Amino acid sequence: MTQLLIVLVGLIAGVVTGLIGASGVMVIVPGLIMLGYGAADAIGASLFADTVASLVVSWTYYQAGNVNLRQGWWIAVGSVLGAQVGSFISPHIDESSLGSSFGIFLIITAIIFALRGMGTVIPVNGQPVAKREPNKFLKALRKNVVLSSLILGFLVGIVSGLLGASGGVMILLILVFLLEYSMHEGVGTSTFIMAFTAASGAIGHAFTGNLPLGAAVLSGLGTVIGGRFAARFANRVNEKVLSYIVGAIFGILGVTMLFGL
After folding, report:
1. C-beta atoms surrounding 233 within 10 Å
2. CA distance 241 to 218
3. Measured distance CA(62)–CA(96) in Å, rounded
């Protein structure tokens, strides 16, 4: 029965990853803890499951032409390095305070994407138009893409290793609002980058003895199934609808983490 529940937890997490390109940590970690696993082990299993789910989901987006790594590689390099730092710090940090902070961050992110959906104009060909002129800060970041992507990726990686999340939320924000990817490209590309970040974090947790292989494999199986079907659906909806979906799910996950529901 426990094994079936682990697969079910992974299935739900896979749906989240497939729809919004975010880690399933908000589902897998509390789910495994409820089933008797320690927090550090649950985070390690989450990172393993995120790795396989991200590969499957990003492949689905790639098949639809929605993976673009022209600048995302540098974020991936920085995040892999940062994930190692976060993984070794993770066992010594109070997860409850981190969870509340991340919950607030998700709620803010939900509002941002909801507003983006409201402001997206969809012409006949289905592509968004009318971009605003970026401010000086964004211009400076875009002018130094390699350096800014490495630094931002490194910070994303640290958070990934700390929370067991593979950084999809923050990577998606960077791609969509900093590097001006479309929503579909942002979700597909961030998911691909997540695979490397999650793998790095999972390896770090394996070295610290916090990677229960049985739970990791079973939850990973569920994420593959859920992620594949959810990603195929997400690729069929337009930018406006996808922005609303992303915002709504981030909002639900944020409230859940903030209030411990």
Report:
1. 13
2. 32
3. 36
Is the pTM higher than 0.85? no
Tell me the two tokens of residue 193: 């980058």
**Whole-number Å distance between alpha carbons of 31 and 28:** 5
Contact criterion met (CB below 8 Å) for 42 and 32 = yes
Cα 136–chain centre separation: 28
CB 245 within 8 A of CB 17: no
- pLDDT(45) > 60: yes
Q: Is the confidence at residue 260, as pLDDT, over 80?
A: no
Structure confidence at residue 225 (pLDDT) = 93
Out of 47-51, 101-105, 170-174, pick the least confident.
Answer: 101-105
Cβ proximity of 157 and 117 under 8 Å = no
Residue 160, pLDDT score: 67
The answer to whether the beta carbons of residues 29 and 164 sit under 8 Å apart is: yes
Q: What is the pLDDT of residue 202?
A: 84
How many residues appear in the chain? 261
Q: How far is CA 105 from CA 27, 70, 175, 216, in A?
A: 17, 27, 17, 26
Three-state secondary-structure class, residue 71? coil
- Number of domains the chain contains: 1
Domain span holding position 46: 2-259
- Nearest by Cα to 33 from 22, 21, 46: 46
Per the listing, tokens 């929605």 go with 66
Q: How far is CA 6 from the centre of its chain?
A: 20
- In tens, the pLDDT along 118-148 reads 555 444 444 544 455 555 656 666 667 777 7
CB 167 within 8 Å of CB 189: no
- Predicted local distance difference test score (pLDDT) of residue 121: 45
Lookup: tokens for 167: 């950084």
